[in-house]
Write a structure and sequence with these properties.
single chain; 490 residues; alpha/beta; Amidase signature (AS) enzymes; eleven-stranded mixed sheet; 16 helices
Length: 490
Protein backbone atom coordinates (compact mmCIF):
# COMPACT_ATOMS: atom_id res chain seq x y z
CA UNK A 1 0.00 0.00 0.00
CA UNK A 2 2.84 2.43 0.85
CA UNK A 3 4.48 1.79 -2.54
CA UNK A 4 1.50 3.25 -4.42
CA UNK A 5 1.58 6.75 -5.82
CA UNK A 6 -1.37 9.04 -5.18
CA UNK A 7 -2.79 8.32 -8.64
CA UNK A 8 -2.29 4.56 -8.21
CA UNK A 9 -3.96 4.64 -4.78
CA UNK A 10 -6.89 6.59 -6.22
CA UNK A 11 -7.30 3.97 -8.95
CA UNK A 12 -7.10 1.15 -6.38
CA UNK A 13 -9.80 2.81 -4.28
CA UNK A 14 -12.03 3.09 -7.34
CA UNK A 15 -11.41 -0.60 -8.12
CA UNK A 16 -12.36 -1.56 -4.51
CA UNK A 17 -8.94 -3.17 -3.89
CA UNK A 18 -9.05 -1.61 -0.43
CA UNK A 19 -11.20 0.95 1.35
CA UNK A 20 -10.43 4.54 2.25
CA UNK A 21 -10.59 3.51 5.91
CA UNK A 22 -7.97 0.80 5.35
CA UNK A 23 -5.73 3.21 3.49
CA UNK A 24 -6.11 5.91 6.12
CA UNK A 25 -5.56 3.45 8.95
CA UNK A 26 -2.30 2.34 7.33
CA UNK A 27 -1.03 5.92 7.08
CA UNK A 28 -2.08 6.73 10.64
CA UNK A 29 -0.09 3.66 11.70
CA UNK A 30 2.93 4.97 9.79
CA UNK A 31 2.63 8.31 11.57
CA UNK A 32 2.41 6.61 14.96
CA UNK A 33 5.52 4.57 14.12
CA UNK A 34 7.70 7.23 12.53
CA UNK A 35 6.64 10.65 13.79
CA UNK A 36 8.48 10.34 17.13
CA UNK A 37 11.72 10.18 15.12
CA UNK A 38 10.91 12.41 12.13
CA UNK A 39 8.63 14.98 13.85
CA UNK A 40 6.91 15.76 10.54
CA UNK A 41 3.57 16.50 12.21
CA UNK A 42 2.80 19.07 14.90
CA UNK A 43 -0.83 17.97 15.24
CA UNK A 44 -2.32 14.62 14.17
CA UNK A 45 -6.01 14.02 13.51
CA UNK A 46 -6.69 10.26 13.76
CA UNK A 47 -10.36 10.47 14.72
CA UNK A 48 -11.24 13.16 12.19
CA UNK A 49 -9.26 11.36 9.46
CA UNK A 50 -11.12 8.08 10.02
CA UNK A 51 -14.46 9.90 9.97
CA UNK A 52 -13.47 11.51 6.64
CA UNK A 53 -12.40 8.07 5.38
CA UNK A 54 -15.79 6.58 6.22
CA UNK A 55 -17.48 9.43 4.36
CA UNK A 56 -15.16 8.80 1.41
CA UNK A 57 -16.11 5.12 1.34
CA UNK A 58 -19.78 6.07 1.15
CA UNK A 59 -19.06 8.45 -1.75
CA UNK A 60 -17.01 5.77 -3.53
CA UNK A 61 -19.83 3.23 -3.11
CA UNK A 62 -22.34 5.69 -4.58
CA UNK A 63 -20.07 6.52 -7.51
CA UNK A 64 -19.87 10.14 -6.37
CA UNK A 65 -16.13 10.27 -5.67
CA UNK A 66 -14.24 13.51 -6.20
CA UNK A 67 -10.75 13.56 -7.75
CA UNK A 68 -9.10 13.10 -4.33
CA UNK A 69 -11.73 10.97 -2.64
CA UNK A 70 -10.14 8.85 0.09
CA UNK A 71 -6.59 10.20 -0.38
CA UNK A 72 -4.74 10.88 2.93
CA UNK A 73 -2.79 14.16 2.93
CA UNK A 74 -0.64 16.22 5.27
CA UNK A 75 -1.51 19.92 5.60
CA UNK A 76 1.28 22.40 6.26
CA UNK A 77 0.54 24.16 9.53
CA UNK A 78 0.38 27.50 7.73
CA UNK A 79 -3.09 26.75 6.29
CA UNK A 80 -5.98 27.65 8.57
CA UNK A 81 -8.15 24.61 9.24
CA UNK A 82 -11.55 25.17 10.85
CA UNK A 83 -11.63 23.84 14.39
CA UNK A 84 -8.06 22.51 14.19
CA UNK A 85 -5.08 24.26 15.82
CA UNK A 86 -2.96 26.22 13.36
CA UNK A 87 0.42 27.35 14.72
CA UNK A 88 2.57 28.43 11.73
CA UNK A 89 5.35 26.66 13.64
CA UNK A 90 5.35 29.47 16.22
CA UNK A 91 4.86 29.62 19.97
CA UNK A 92 2.87 32.83 19.55
CA UNK A 93 0.08 30.94 17.73
CA UNK A 94 0.16 27.83 19.93
CA UNK A 95 -3.44 28.32 21.20
CA UNK A 96 -4.94 29.51 17.87
CA UNK A 97 -7.89 27.48 16.55
CA UNK A 98 -9.27 29.10 13.37
CA UNK A 99 -13.05 29.46 13.01
CA UNK A 100 -12.69 29.21 9.21
CA UNK A 101 -11.08 27.05 6.51
CA UNK A 102 -8.47 28.32 4.05
CA UNK A 103 -9.59 28.28 0.44
CA UNK A 104 -6.92 25.77 -0.59
CA UNK A 105 -7.82 23.26 2.12
CA UNK A 106 -11.54 23.83 1.48
CA UNK A 107 -10.92 22.92 -2.17
CA UNK A 108 -9.16 19.71 -1.12
CA UNK A 109 -11.99 18.78 1.24
CA UNK A 110 -14.50 19.50 -1.53
CA UNK A 111 -12.68 16.93 -3.69
CA UNK A 112 -12.74 14.28 -0.97
CA UNK A 113 -9.24 14.48 0.52
CA UNK A 114 -8.54 13.18 4.03
CA UNK A 115 -6.45 15.30 6.41
CA UNK A 116 -4.04 13.25 8.52
CA UNK A 117 -2.68 16.22 10.45
CA UNK A 118 -0.83 19.52 10.37
CA UNK A 119 2.76 19.33 9.12
CA UNK A 120 5.70 20.88 10.94
CA UNK A 121 7.48 23.87 9.40
CA UNK A 122 9.99 26.64 9.98
CA UNK A 123 8.42 29.33 12.16
CA UNK A 124 6.22 31.57 9.99
CA UNK A 125 7.86 29.88 6.96
CA UNK A 126 11.16 31.62 7.71
CA UNK A 127 13.98 29.16 7.13
CA UNK A 128 15.64 26.64 4.83
CA UNK A 129 16.16 23.82 7.31
CA UNK A 130 13.02 23.29 9.42
CA UNK A 131 15.23 23.96 12.45
CA UNK A 132 13.39 27.17 13.47
CA UNK A 133 10.07 25.52 14.40
CA UNK A 134 8.92 26.12 17.98
CA UNK A 135 7.77 22.48 17.99
CA UNK A 136 11.15 20.88 17.36
CA UNK A 137 13.13 20.28 14.20
CA UNK A 138 12.05 17.86 11.48
CA UNK A 139 14.48 15.06 10.57
CA UNK A 140 14.98 14.12 6.93
CA UNK A 141 14.07 10.44 6.37
CA UNK A 142 17.23 10.16 4.24
CA UNK A 143 20.69 9.63 5.72
CA UNK A 144 24.14 9.67 4.16
CA UNK A 145 25.57 6.35 3.10
CA UNK A 146 27.26 4.81 6.15
CA UNK A 147 26.42 7.80 8.35
CA UNK A 148 23.28 7.94 10.48
CA UNK A 149 23.70 11.51 11.71
CA UNK A 150 20.36 13.35 11.22
CA UNK A 151 19.94 15.64 8.22
CA UNK A 152 17.61 18.59 7.68
CA UNK A 153 14.66 18.09 5.29
CA UNK A 154 14.90 21.63 3.96
CA UNK A 155 12.45 24.39 4.70
CA UNK A 156 10.15 25.90 5.33
CA UNK A 157 7.88 23.05 4.14
CA UNK A 158 10.17 20.41 5.65
CA UNK A 159 7.41 18.63 7.56
CA UNK A 160 5.31 18.29 4.40
CA UNK A 161 8.27 16.98 2.36
CA UNK A 162 9.46 14.59 5.07
CA UNK A 163 5.94 13.20 5.56
CA UNK A 164 5.59 12.40 1.85
CA UNK A 165 9.13 10.99 1.51
CA UNK A 166 8.74 8.78 4.61
CA UNK A 167 5.38 7.41 3.41
CA UNK A 168 3.47 9.19 6.18
CA UNK A 169 1.14 10.84 3.62
CA UNK A 170 0.34 10.39 -0.07
CA UNK A 171 0.82 14.10 -0.70
CA UNK A 172 0.91 17.40 1.17
CA UNK A 173 0.20 21.09 0.89
CA UNK A 174 3.16 23.45 1.11
CA UNK A 175 3.98 27.11 0.52
CA UNK A 176 6.85 28.78 -1.28
CA UNK A 177 8.11 32.31 -0.54
CA UNK A 178 11.72 31.93 -1.68
CA UNK A 179 12.03 28.21 -2.41
CA UNK A 180 10.15 26.62 0.47
CA UNK A 181 8.45 24.01 -1.74
CA UNK A 182 11.25 23.23 -4.19
CA UNK A 183 14.21 23.10 -1.77
CA UNK A 184 12.68 20.60 0.71
CA UNK A 185 11.32 18.56 -2.22
CA UNK A 186 14.87 18.33 -3.61
CA UNK A 187 16.35 17.47 -0.19
CA UNK A 188 13.76 14.71 0.37
CA UNK A 189 13.78 13.16 -3.11
CA UNK A 190 10.20 14.08 -4.08
CA UNK A 191 8.40 16.45 -6.48
CA UNK A 192 7.33 19.96 -5.52
CA UNK A 193 5.82 22.74 -7.62
CA UNK A 194 5.44 26.42 -6.84
CA UNK A 195 2.69 27.59 -9.21
CA UNK A 196 2.41 31.06 -10.70
CA UNK A 197 1.68 33.77 -8.14
CA UNK A 198 -2.12 34.05 -8.06
CA UNK A 199 -2.83 30.48 -9.26
CA UNK A 200 -3.74 29.32 -5.71
CA UNK A 201 -5.64 31.49 -3.24
CA UNK A 202 -3.70 32.89 -0.28
CA UNK A 203 -6.90 33.40 1.73
CA UNK A 204 -6.60 31.62 5.06
CA UNK A 205 -2.84 31.06 4.69
CA UNK A 206 -0.81 32.71 7.45
CA UNK A 207 1.18 35.43 5.69
CA UNK A 208 4.96 35.80 5.60
CA UNK A 209 5.62 38.05 2.57
CA UNK A 210 2.38 38.75 0.74
CA UNK A 211 3.81 39.55 -2.69
CA UNK A 212 5.90 36.35 -2.70
CA UNK A 213 3.91 33.64 -0.84
CA UNK A 214 2.26 30.99 -3.00
CA UNK A 215 0.70 27.65 -2.09
CA UNK A 216 1.52 24.45 -3.97
CA UNK A 217 1.81 20.68 -3.49
CA UNK A 218 4.58 18.23 -2.74
CA UNK A 219 4.12 14.62 -3.89
CA UNK A 220 5.95 11.47 -4.96
CA UNK A 221 5.50 11.88 -8.71
CA UNK A 222 4.97 14.67 -11.21
CA UNK A 223 1.49 13.33 -12.03
CA UNK A 224 0.59 13.22 -8.32
CA UNK A 225 1.59 16.88 -8.01
CA UNK A 226 -0.50 17.70 -11.07
CA UNK A 227 -3.60 16.10 -9.55
CA UNK A 228 -3.09 17.92 -6.25
CA UNK A 229 -2.52 21.30 -7.91
CA UNK A 230 -5.66 20.79 -9.99
CA UNK A 231 -7.68 20.66 -6.77
CA UNK A 232 -5.79 23.37 -4.89
CA UNK A 233 -5.89 25.99 -7.67
CA UNK A 234 -8.71 28.24 -8.77
CA UNK A 235 -10.00 31.80 -8.60
CA UNK A 236 -11.01 33.10 -5.18
CA UNK A 237 -12.83 36.45 -4.86
CA UNK A 238 -11.70 36.62 -1.20
CA UNK A 239 -8.07 37.01 -2.36
CA UNK A 240 -7.41 40.23 -4.28
CA UNK A 241 -4.27 38.68 -5.82
CA UNK A 242 -6.07 35.55 -7.04
CA UNK A 243 -6.04 35.24 -10.84
CA UNK A 244 -9.40 34.73 -12.56
CA UNK A 245 -7.99 32.15 -14.96
CA UNK A 246 -9.35 28.69 -15.72
CA UNK A 247 -7.51 25.73 -14.18
CA UNK A 248 -6.26 23.46 -16.99
CA UNK A 249 -5.85 19.69 -16.87
CA UNK A 250 -2.35 19.55 -15.40
CA UNK A 251 -2.33 15.74 -15.31
CA UNK A 252 -2.95 15.55 -19.06
CA UNK A 253 0.03 17.87 -19.63
CA UNK A 254 2.32 15.27 -18.02
CA UNK A 255 1.84 13.06 -21.08
CA UNK A 256 2.63 15.74 -23.67
CA UNK A 257 6.34 15.12 -24.13
CA UNK A 258 8.89 17.81 -24.95
CA UNK A 259 9.51 17.29 -28.66
CA UNK A 260 9.92 20.68 -30.33
CA UNK A 261 10.26 22.62 -27.06
CA UNK A 262 13.10 25.08 -26.59
CA UNK A 263 14.72 24.74 -23.15
CA UNK A 264 16.80 27.63 -21.88
CA UNK A 265 19.99 27.35 -19.84
CA UNK A 266 20.66 30.55 -17.84
CA UNK A 267 24.39 31.11 -17.90
CA UNK A 268 24.27 33.10 -14.64
CA UNK A 269 23.21 29.97 -12.74
CA UNK A 270 26.67 28.46 -13.31
CA UNK A 271 28.15 29.64 -10.04
CA UNK A 272 31.81 29.72 -9.06
CA UNK A 273 32.49 26.81 -6.77
CA UNK A 274 29.39 24.88 -7.78
CA UNK A 275 29.82 21.23 -6.69
CA UNK A 276 30.82 19.10 -9.71
CA UNK A 277 27.98 16.63 -9.07
CA UNK A 278 25.38 19.44 -9.26
CA UNK A 279 26.85 20.62 -12.56
CA UNK A 280 27.02 17.03 -13.86
CA UNK A 281 23.35 16.41 -12.99
CA UNK A 282 22.36 19.64 -14.72
CA UNK A 283 24.18 18.58 -17.88
CA UNK A 284 22.60 15.14 -17.65
CA UNK A 285 19.15 16.72 -17.42
CA UNK A 286 19.81 18.76 -20.54
CA UNK A 287 20.98 15.62 -22.35
CA UNK A 288 17.77 13.81 -21.36
CA UNK A 289 15.65 16.63 -22.75
CA UNK A 290 17.74 16.82 -25.93
CA UNK A 291 17.30 13.08 -26.46
CA UNK A 292 13.53 13.50 -25.95
CA UNK A 293 13.38 15.99 -28.80
CA UNK A 294 13.88 19.36 -27.12
CA UNK A 295 16.28 22.04 -28.31
CA UNK A 296 18.72 23.46 -25.73
CA UNK A 297 19.27 27.22 -25.91
CA UNK A 298 21.70 29.42 -23.96
CA UNK A 299 19.99 32.43 -22.33
CA UNK A 300 21.00 35.26 -20.02
CA UNK A 301 19.32 36.50 -16.82
CA UNK A 302 21.77 39.29 -15.95
CA UNK A 303 20.05 40.46 -12.76
CA UNK A 304 19.98 36.99 -11.19
CA UNK A 305 23.05 37.86 -9.11
CA UNK A 306 20.95 40.40 -7.20
CA UNK A 307 18.21 37.87 -6.42
CA UNK A 308 19.15 36.95 -2.86
CA UNK A 309 20.03 40.49 -1.79
CA UNK A 310 16.78 41.82 -3.21
CA UNK A 311 14.74 39.02 -1.63
CA UNK A 312 16.22 39.63 1.82
CA UNK A 313 15.06 43.24 1.66
CA UNK A 314 11.56 42.69 0.21
CA UNK A 315 10.61 39.59 2.22
CA UNK A 316 11.61 40.88 5.70
CA UNK A 317 9.97 44.23 4.95
CA UNK A 318 6.66 42.53 4.19
CA UNK A 319 7.12 40.19 7.16
CA UNK A 320 7.61 43.07 9.58
CA UNK A 321 4.29 44.50 8.39
CA UNK A 322 2.40 41.19 8.40
CA UNK A 323 3.66 40.05 11.79
CA UNK A 324 2.71 43.31 13.50
CA UNK A 325 -0.74 41.78 14.05
CA UNK A 326 0.67 39.33 16.61
CA UNK A 327 0.50 41.50 19.70
CA UNK A 328 -1.20 39.32 22.32
CA UNK A 329 -4.42 41.34 22.20
CA UNK A 330 -6.73 39.77 19.61
CA UNK A 331 -5.64 36.14 19.30
CA UNK A 332 -2.73 33.83 20.02
CA UNK A 333 -0.48 33.66 23.05
CA UNK A 334 -0.22 36.56 25.51
CA UNK A 335 2.50 37.44 28.02
CA UNK A 336 1.14 40.08 30.46
CA UNK A 337 2.87 43.36 31.25
CA UNK A 338 2.34 46.42 33.43
CA UNK A 339 0.87 48.39 30.53
CA UNK A 340 -0.05 47.90 26.88
CA UNK A 341 3.44 48.62 25.56
CA UNK A 342 5.02 46.10 27.92
CA UNK A 343 2.35 43.52 27.00
CA UNK A 344 3.32 43.94 23.32
CA UNK A 345 7.02 43.67 24.10
CA UNK A 346 6.71 40.66 26.38
CA UNK A 347 4.35 38.79 24.07
CA UNK A 348 6.51 39.26 21.00
CA UNK A 349 9.78 38.54 22.82
CA UNK A 350 8.40 35.29 24.22
CA UNK A 351 6.34 34.29 21.19
CA UNK A 352 8.78 34.82 18.29
CA UNK A 353 11.92 32.76 17.77
CA UNK A 354 15.35 34.19 16.94
CA UNK A 355 15.07 33.90 13.13
CA UNK A 356 11.65 35.58 13.06
CA UNK A 357 12.90 38.38 15.31
CA UNK A 358 15.95 38.81 13.07
CA UNK A 359 13.81 39.22 9.95
CA UNK A 360 11.35 41.57 11.64
CA UNK A 361 14.25 43.79 12.70
CA UNK A 362 15.74 43.79 9.19
CA UNK A 363 12.35 44.54 7.64
CA UNK A 364 11.54 47.33 10.04
CA UNK A 365 14.94 48.88 9.39
CA UNK A 366 14.63 48.91 5.58
CA UNK A 367 11.15 50.45 5.83
CA UNK A 368 12.18 53.13 8.32
CA UNK A 369 12.41 56.83 7.52
CA UNK A 370 15.62 57.64 5.69
CA UNK A 371 16.19 54.07 4.53
CA UNK A 372 13.00 53.26 2.59
CA UNK A 373 14.28 54.82 -0.65
CA UNK A 374 17.81 53.48 -0.23
CA UNK A 375 16.77 49.88 0.36
CA UNK A 376 13.12 48.91 -0.15
CA UNK A 377 12.32 51.14 -3.12
CA UNK A 378 15.60 50.23 -4.85
CA UNK A 379 14.94 46.53 -4.23
CA UNK A 380 11.56 46.82 -5.92
CA UNK A 381 13.20 48.42 -8.95
CA UNK A 382 15.71 45.57 -9.18
CA UNK A 383 12.83 43.11 -8.83
CA UNK A 384 11.21 44.68 -11.90
CA UNK A 385 14.47 44.21 -13.81
CA UNK A 386 14.58 40.54 -12.81
CA UNK A 387 11.07 40.03 -14.17
CA UNK A 388 12.13 41.75 -17.40
CA UNK A 389 15.05 39.33 -17.72
CA UNK A 390 12.72 36.34 -17.51
CA UNK A 391 10.20 37.94 -19.88
CA UNK A 392 12.88 38.49 -22.51
CA UNK A 393 14.22 34.95 -22.07
CA UNK A 394 10.76 33.47 -22.58
CA UNK A 395 10.50 35.24 -25.93
CA UNK A 396 12.93 32.63 -27.28
CA UNK A 397 12.43 29.56 -25.02
CA UNK A 398 9.48 27.59 -23.58
CA UNK A 399 11.04 26.73 -20.21
CA UNK A 400 14.30 26.96 -18.28
CA UNK A 401 16.25 24.16 -16.61
CA UNK A 402 18.51 24.80 -13.60
CA UNK A 403 19.65 22.99 -10.45
CA UNK A 404 17.13 23.12 -7.62
CA UNK A 405 19.66 23.52 -4.80
CA UNK A 406 23.41 24.16 -4.52
CA UNK A 407 23.90 20.96 -2.48
CA UNK A 408 22.16 17.89 -1.10
CA UNK A 409 20.63 17.92 2.39
CA UNK A 410 23.05 18.97 5.12
CA UNK A 411 23.29 17.86 8.73
CA UNK A 412 21.30 19.28 11.61
CA UNK A 413 23.59 21.81 13.23
CA UNK A 414 25.70 22.37 10.09
CA UNK A 415 25.62 25.94 8.71
CA UNK A 416 23.26 26.97 11.53
CA UNK A 417 25.54 29.58 13.09
CA UNK A 418 25.81 31.60 9.87
CA UNK A 419 22.55 33.13 8.58
CA UNK A 420 24.15 34.17 5.29
CA UNK A 421 25.27 30.60 4.54
CA UNK A 422 21.75 29.42 5.35
CA UNK A 423 20.22 32.02 3.03
CA UNK A 424 22.45 30.80 0.16
CA UNK A 425 20.46 27.54 0.11
CA UNK A 426 17.80 29.45 -1.85
CA UNK A 427 20.11 30.94 -4.45
CA UNK A 428 18.54 29.00 -7.37
CA UNK A 429 14.94 29.35 -6.22
CA UNK A 430 14.52 32.95 -5.05
CA UNK A 431 14.52 34.65 -8.51
CA UNK A 432 11.40 32.68 -9.46
CA UNK A 433 9.46 34.09 -6.51
CA UNK A 434 10.64 37.61 -7.26
CA UNK A 435 9.19 37.25 -10.77
CA UNK A 436 6.05 35.32 -9.72
CA UNK A 437 6.76 32.42 -12.10
CA UNK A 438 5.90 28.71 -11.84
CA UNK A 439 8.74 26.31 -11.06
CA UNK A 440 9.10 22.65 -10.12
CA UNK A 441 11.77 20.51 -8.47
CA UNK A 442 12.05 16.93 -9.74
CA UNK A 443 14.36 14.30 -8.18
CA UNK A 444 16.90 13.32 -10.81
CA UNK A 445 19.85 11.59 -9.14
CA UNK A 446 21.94 10.94 -6.05
CA UNK A 447 25.11 12.59 -4.80
CA UNK A 448 28.25 10.67 -3.79
CA UNK A 449 26.81 10.11 -0.31
CA UNK A 450 23.57 8.62 -1.60
CA UNK A 451 21.39 11.70 -1.05
CA UNK A 452 18.82 12.95 -3.58
CA UNK A 453 19.44 15.89 -5.89
CA UNK A 454 16.79 17.80 -7.82
CA UNK A 455 16.50 19.70 -11.08
CA UNK A 456 14.36 22.83 -11.38
CA UNK A 457 12.06 23.61 -14.32
CA UNK A 458 10.94 27.26 -14.63
CA UNK A 459 8.00 28.24 -16.84
CA UNK A 460 6.15 31.24 -18.21
CA UNK A 461 3.44 32.83 -16.05
CA UNK A 462 0.39 30.53 -15.86
CA UNK A 463 2.07 27.95 -18.10
CA UNK A 464 2.34 25.23 -15.49
CA UNK A 465 1.34 22.76 -18.22
CA UNK A 466 4.72 23.10 -19.92
CA UNK A 467 6.46 22.81 -16.54
CA UNK A 468 4.60 19.55 -15.91
CA UNK A 469 5.44 18.27 -19.40
CA UNK A 470 9.16 18.94 -18.94
CA UNK A 471 9.13 17.64 -15.37
CA UNK A 472 7.48 14.41 -16.44
CA UNK A 473 10.05 13.95 -19.24
CA UNK A 474 12.91 14.33 -16.74
CA UNK A 475 11.16 11.97 -14.33
CA UNK A 476 10.85 9.29 -17.03
CA UNK A 477 14.46 9.68 -18.12
CA UNK A 478 15.89 9.75 -14.59
CA UNK A 479 13.90 6.74 -13.41
CA UNK A 480 14.50 7.89 -9.83
CA UNK A 481 13.31 5.06 -7.58
CA UNK A 482 15.65 5.10 -4.57
CA UNK A 483 13.80 5.30 -1.25
CA UNK A 484 14.92 6.90 2.02
CA UNK A 485 16.16 4.73 4.87
CA UNK A 486 13.48 5.77 7.36
CA UNK A 487 10.03 5.15 5.92
CA UNK A 488 6.82 3.24 6.56
CA UNK A 489 7.12 -0.42 5.61
CA UNK A 490 10.93 -0.32 5.61
Amino acid sequence: MFDLSLVAARDALAAKKFSARELTTAYLGAIEKLNPDINAYITTLPEAALAQADAADISLAKGEAGPLCGIPLAIKDLFCTKGVRTTAGSKILSPFIPPYESTVTANLLRDGAIFLGKANMDEFAMGSSNMTSAYGCVTNPWTRRGDNRPLVPGGSSGGSAAAVAARMALGATATDTGGSIRQPAAFCGIVGIKPTYGRCSRWGVVAFASSLDQAGPVARTVEDAAVLLGSMAGFDPKDSTSADIAVPDFAAACKRGVKGLRIGVPREYRLDGMPPEIDALWRQGLDWLREAGAEIVDVSLPHTKYGLATYYIVAPAEASSNLARYDGVRFGARTPGRDLTELYENTRADGFGAEVQRRILIGTYVLSAGYYDAYYLRAQKVRALMLRDFTEAFETVDALLTPATPSAAFGQGEKMDDPITMYLNDIFTVPVNMAGLPAMSVPAGLDAQGLPLGLQIIGRPFDEETVFAVGAAIERAAGFSTLPNLRAGA
